[in-house]
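thread: overnight batch results

M.L. [08:02]
morning all. the overnight job finished for the chain we discussed friday. pasting input first so we're all looking at the same thing
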Amino acid sequence: MRKLAALLGVSAAVAGVVTAAVASADPLANPYPDVSRYAKLDSEGFRLGSDSDNLWFSTPRGLNCGIWADGSFGCNGPIPGSPPGANQIGWFLGDGQPHFDSTSTVRFVNPVGLQQRLLPRNRYIELGKTVCAVSDNDSVYCGWTQYRYGSSSDAGQFIIGPDSSFLGAPPSKDGS
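M.L. [08:03]
and the structure it wrote out:
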């Protein structure tokens, strides 16, 4: 019986340490990168064929993404952390914030059918008020830059990470 009690005590102590380690992660940390640290690429190389008003790119993780001339942006492909069946994340001019979609109409693949250029790590492209970037861990960030990259007041942004995705304004430190 003493061995069982000792074993349970050790198990509880280990569980407490694991729980404390997980709980110490800051759930209110801004998930968005500081895009100003990245090198800006000339957007002309991301215009394809007769569809020269929009920018089209692919990511190191195989997503196809686009920025439309009106400022709308998004990506198609496997999106970690999205609802079952979702194959697109996008923000369209007039939307309150980005959203996941399950669609048979793929919107962020170049309609001319040309290969989309790879947007490499630690680089970004910009069209009007919209910027998209790939971080050093291959996360894809896109946002409408009226408020500038990763602003706490800007709901028009998303990040697709290796294991999860985040939409809208970052969590507020004051709980609002």
